[in-house]
Amino acid sequence: MTTYEWADTEVEPIAKALIAEVKDHEDLVHARILYVFRDKHALSRGHAILGKARKVAGLTQFLVDDESIDAPLFVLEFPRDLWKEMTDQQRRALVDHELSHLAVERNDDGIWVGRTRGHDVEEFLAIVKRHGLWKADVQALAKVAAGQLALDLDDPAAADDEDEQPTTPASPDDEEWERAAPGLRVVPDPFAGNGAAR
Ligand SMILES: [Zn+2]
């Protein structure tokens, strides 16, 4: 049987720092977020699940947290067994990822409401291998990834220094990131050829 425990002491400081530093997350100050560990990771079609983001509403929200009934409530769940094996940098990336699934916005009455959102990019590695950067979201991911790779190659120390890491994700049309990516080939026409970034 899966058992759960609160993960506040380990996860909340990372999440709070990200919400304070990352512009994409700034509205999450209007949400209440609970952090839990499950004892062992679950599998989804053979892949380990690293984290889960849930919105909690209605009766469940009332039962969990009746004082914050007006604030959107979310639960982030992490598998303790895999969390233990991660580096600080991986943990920060994972928490940043799960926070990115959370969104809050004001409704017409000025009340903050929450929702979860999906990934920017959904693709199989094999498809990128066979067909290259064939659609806009995959092209955008490759551009950002190539920028990261180039930064690491330019400055081997960057990976070990938190301060050198960008606190906001580069947008695909960020000129600086493109310059930082020599050798990147993004195919403007998806069917012009096999143009995977090398
Ligand atoms: Zn995700």
How would you sum up this structure, described in words?
By secondary structure, the chain is of the alpha+beta class. The chain folds into two domains: 113 residues, Zincin-like (2-Layer Sandwich), CATH 3.30.2010; 55 residues, no CATH class. 36% of the residues lie in helices and 18% in strands. The protein has seven helices and eight strands, in the order E-H-E-E-E-E-H-E-H-H-E-E-H-H-H. A four-stranded mixed beta sheet has the order 1-2-6-5. A hairpin with a 5-residue loop joins strand 7 and strand 8. Helix 1 crosses helix 4. The chain is globular and about 50 Å long. The relative contact order is 0.13. The C terminus is likely disordered. The site of zinc ion has 3 residues, from loops. Zinc ion (ZN) binds next to loops.
Map the helices and strands.
Layout: E1 4-6, H1 8-21, E2 32-38, E3 43-44, E4 47-48, E5 52-56, H2 58-64, E6 73-79, H3 80-85, H4 88-100, E7 102-106, E8 112-116, H5 125-131, H6 136-154, H7 175-179
Parallel strand pairs: 2-6
Antiparallel strand pairs: 1-2, 3-4, 5-6, 7-8
Helix pairs in contact: 1-4
Bound molecules: zinc ion (ZN).
What would a concise description of this structure say?
The chain is of the alpha+beta class and 198 residues long. It is built from 7 helices and 8 strands; from the N terminus they run βαββββαβααββααα. The protein has 2 domains: 4-116, Zincin-like; 125-179, no CATH class.
